[in-house]
Write a structure and sequence with these properties.
Shape: globular
GO molecular function, one term: hydrolase activity, acting on carbon-nitrogen (but not peptide) bonds, in linear amides
Domain CN hydrolase: 1-252
Structural class: alpha/beta
Order of helices and strands: EHEHHEEEEEEEEHEHEEEEEEHHE
Number of helices: 7
Radius of gyration: 17 Å
Family: Belongs to the carbon-nitrogen hydrolase superfamily. NIT1/NIT2 family.
Keywords: Hydrolase
Number of strands: 18
InterPro entries: C-N_Hydrolase, C-N_Hydrolase_sf, Nit1/2_C-N_Hydrolase, UPF0012_CS
CATH topology: Nitrilase/N-carbamoyl-D-aminoacid amidohydrolase
CATH class: Alpha Beta
């Protein structure tokens, strides 16, 4: 096993969420994972002080980044840190991004992806109205990075509805794509599995879809069903609700064979010209 997807039911208690994340990361490492993906908003879900959290982390006074670095070192893990609010580098008072960070096994940050597509949607649930743009600025670039499990493209949640992003990640050499998420119960029940499997099939990548799965302050209910999908669209591991650790192995030879037998990348007759330039992380 060399990849892990973690499902959580995060609340508005940051220390408790970090303790849970650390426990699940340890389980992933014990299970043999080299790369583990946390869900969207793993450190806090339901709090309204995201700007204050972002400034504290940017100024080195928050608990989240030190916890992640220590966990990476303690467990020898590469960690995709779901999302957390962070302002642009060097601008601690600017509007935060929903930021997905990649840490290596030494606790060093090697990549940062700022969520491109913000969830400004009306949903037929208890909450009804979601406006991520009230709290976050959108990102500008796609991000790929080399990891021990393969070349990783980063995405987040609502991004799953925009296939051109995933085509660009494949163009940039992605072999795996992380998708930390917090789909609502309503939208997840309707579309989650279709979207995750479609993005895996069309890119011929492993999709590492780490979700929130349960009840949160707000009120908010998330769909869960974290899943690892292979390049043929097959779910390798899945969990419906509650906390959990999913493990799978990337079969590089099989992935290469799938891409050779069905060379969709070579057959494609057009590409999206306005996709932002990728950021290369070595």
């Amino acid at each position: 096993m060399n990849v892990a997807v973690l499902q959580m039911v995060s609340q508005d208690d940051v220390p408790a969420n970090l303790a849970t994340a650390r426990r699940l990361l340890e389980q992933a490492a014990i299970g043999g994972a080299r790369l583990a993906v946390l869900p969207e908003n793993f450190a806090a879900l339901g709090r309204r002080d995201s700007a204050a959290l972002a400034r504290a982390e940017a100024e080195g006074q928050g608990p989240v980044l030190p916890c992640l670095r220590q966990a990476a070192r303690d467990f020898g893990l590469w960690i995709v840190a779901g999302t957390l609010p962070l302002p642009p580098d060097g601008r601690p008072w600017a509007k935060a991004h929903a930021c997905s960070l990649l840490f290596d096994e030494h606790g060093e940050q090697v990549a940062r992806y700022d969520k491109l597509h913000l969830f400004d949607v009306d949903v037929a649930d208890q909450r009804g109205r979601y406006r991520e743009s009230d709290d976050y600025a959108h990102g500008e670039r796609i991000v790929v990075a080399d990891t021990p499990a393969g070349r990783l493209g980063l995405s987040v949640c609502y991004d799953l509805r925009f296939p051109e992003l995933y085509a660009a990640l494949r163009d940039a050499g992605a072999e795996l794509i992380s998708a930390p998420s917090a789909f609502t119960a309503v939208t997840g029940g309707a579309h989650w599995h279709v979207l995750v499997r479609a993005r895996a099939l069309e890119t011929q990548c492993y999709l590492l879809a780490a979700a929130q799965g349960g009840l949160h302050p707000g009120p908010r209910e998330t769909y869960g069903h974290s899943v690892i999908v292979d390049p043929w669209g097959r779910p390798l591991a899945e969990q419906a609700q509650g906390e959990g650790v999913l493990l799978a192995r990337r079969d590089a030879d099989e992935q290469a064979a799938i891409r050779q037998r069905m060379p969709v990348q070579r057959h494609r007759r057009f590409s999206v010209s306005a996709v932002p330039r990728p950021i290369e992380m070595e």
